[in-house]
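User: Hey, quick favor. My workstation is busy. Could you predict this chain's structure for me?
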Amino acid sequence: MLRIELPNDIQKLEKQIKALKYQISRDISSKDKNIHEAALKKLLEHREKLLLKGD
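Assistant: No problem, here it is.
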């Protein structure tokens, strides 16, 4: 099971999202790519929750 630390600081979250998007573009192994895509999905979902909460 994948464990991801979800920061509540939107700037840290944006940096993690940007880094994962870059890493996914460079991944060669499909296993690594799947792990990074799952992590990215969780981070994007968390960002949406934070943005909705902030409104």
